[in-house]
Amino acid sequence: MKPIQVGLLGIGTVGSGTFEVLKRNQEEIQRRAGRGIEVTMVADLDVARAKSIVGANVQVVDDARKVIANPDIDIVVELIGGYGIAKQLVLEAIDAGKHVVTANKALLAVHGTEIFAAAHKKGVMVAFEAAVAGGIPIIKALREGLTANRIQWLAGIINGTTNFILSEMRDKGLTFDDVLKQAQALGYAEADPTFDIEGVDAAHKATLMSAIAFGVPVQFDKAYVEGITKLESQDIKYAEQLGYRIKLLGISKRTAAGIELRVHPCLVPAKRLIANVEGAMNAVMVHADAVGTTLYYGKGAGSEPTASAVIADLVDITRLHTADPLNRVPHLAFQPDAMSNLPILPMAQVVTSYYLRLRVADQAGVLAKVTGILANADISIDAVLQREAGEGESHTDLIILTHDCVEAKMNQALAEMQKLTTVLAPITRIRKEELN
Ligand SMILES: NC(=O)C1=CN([C@@H]2O[C@H](COP(=O)(O)OP(=O)(O)OC[C@H]3O[C@@H](n4cnc5c(N)ncnc54)[C@H](O)[C@@H]3O)[C@@H](O)[C@H]2O)C=CC1
Ligand SMILES: N[C@@H](CC=O)C(=O)O
Ligand code: NA
């Protein structure tokens, strides 16, 4: 049988890995797919660099639309990134009846509803394993492997750049900016690294996982997003003393009132496997009713790990493209007419526990006032740590761990505590999850 012909749009970090791994493992891949899979056309703005990667046997153009217009191309792989031209190209490829593979979580988290609807109407597949946690087959696991289950929550380290920054800062005492530069040089960071450090990239991925886990539409605009730029190294140290690690987590939970969808730094018990995921590695925990808790771990960024996921999608499409579209796995795991309208909850309605750090005057009665405010708000305390004031210091740090409470109550208690004259600086609040 004639090989499946693939057109690559963009041959940067992920595109070059995809080309290389497809070539290197072509025999093994063909034995699995039942058919050869070949990149026969590439579009990149940097034609010279693209040619140096693919050699003379592959046609290279600078206009992606030429790939889409080529009737011999069966699958278009979008590896340009962003919501701009990438969106137009993906929609045009669908319109031309091409199956699409993309690693572009930003595009799908924001415009997924429109893109999946267009693909469904046209009877083509849009596959996106590489868009979440790079090489980890988490989309496959959520969409197919766990299909018997009612999923209750998922929580993951789903941005390699920020996990790398947090690990290097903690272990080597390096500065934020230096580690970010390293992450960029290693090809982990997004084109705009603020997407990584402000939690946006993780929120894109959490949005996609949440849609697949709970059968709700992709709703990035409703996600709560907080990155790691305001984290202070002293909080990392205090958390360690209390038996926790701080990780940037993407979390989505099903509750009776709706779906929690949030990304923020989070204290996680140091004894959990996920707390020990270091460097650019990713890990996702999924808790479901039948199977219990499962954990998926691996490389979430980088050229070949991400290519591994792109190629898995190419193989899936190769196997399934002749199947009746109704027999294919739905894009978001649930049939399009069986999606749930459970709302995404505003952050004020989220229930979680907290780490609080207060810079307080070193005076008698301060602790009582603070704990009194928490008690009045019905927030119970799990642990308290008070740093001894140093010689000549008139202030000290008070660290409090709370049990679960609704975020609105905590906001109110924080506002009251902040008004105390003995509280000398803005209070640090970091959320905490036991993940059990
Ligand atoms: N780098 C990584 O580790 C991962 C990246 N991704 C996603 O994969 C996608 C690609 O990322 P990278 O390979 O890292 O980016 P990159 O910046 O290395 O590569 C993008 C390529 O697209 C080309 N390009 C830009 N505009 C174009 C246009 N109009 N027509 C044709 N080519 C064009 C650029 O010249 C470049 O070669 C993004 O959506 C990213 O979020 C997903 C998982 C991991
Ligand atoms: N910038 C992302 C790349 C993969 O999605 C990350 O750091 O995880
Ligand atoms: Na993946």
From TrEMBL:
Catalytic center residues: K205
Pfam family, one: NAD_binding_3
Single GO molecular function: NADP binding
Residue span(s) of domain ACT: 355-432
Superkingdom of this protein's organism: Bacteria
UniProt keyword Oxidoreductase, yes or no: yes
Binding site for NADP(+): L9, G10, I11, G12, T13, V14, G15, S16
Listed SUPFAM superfamilies: ACT-like (SSF55021), Glyceraldehyde-3-phosphate dehydrogenase-like, C-terminal domain (SSF55347), NAD(P)-binding Rossmann-fold domains (SSF51735)
UniProt family annotation: Belongs to the homoserine dehydrogenase family.
Protein name: Homoserine dehydrogenase
Organism name: Limnohabitans curvus
